[in-house]
Amino acid sequence: MKKSKELTDQKSCMSRAKDDEMVFVLLARDWASPATIRFWIAERIRIGKNKPGDPQIIEAEKCAEAMEEDDVLTCPVCLLGIREPTSLKEGDPCPGGCVGVDGVTVKLGIPW
Ligand SMILES: [Zn+2]
Q1: What is the CA(94)–ligand 1 centre distance, in A?
Q2: Span 54-87, pLDDT tens digits
Q3: One domain, residues 66 and 78
Q4: Residue range of the domain that includes 40
Q5: How many angstroms separate the alpha carbon of residue 112 from the centre of ligand 1?
């Protein structure tokens, strides 16, 4: 859920959290977030709190997918995705040293 909706929607997790309850926020730009959400999905199903296909599980998976598509600088060859705050920008060479078949250095975020 987008931050603005999370804070204003009366049914959101943040709105339903008790005033003295600990919460943990995952940001879309954190490369670790999608995998963490998928672990939470698996754990919720394992402990019997949810079943696959529950609306809460579907929403969580959609959130993980949306995070993966958000602000990712991708190498078109190795598909390396760079999400963390970084000094790299679109057009920089792939830090993995990828080179295209024509010998030209591949550039992040630019179709090959
Ligand atoms: Zn690469």
Answers
A1: 5
A2: 999 999 999 998 888 766 777 877 777 776 667 8
A3: no
A4: 3-71
A5: 11
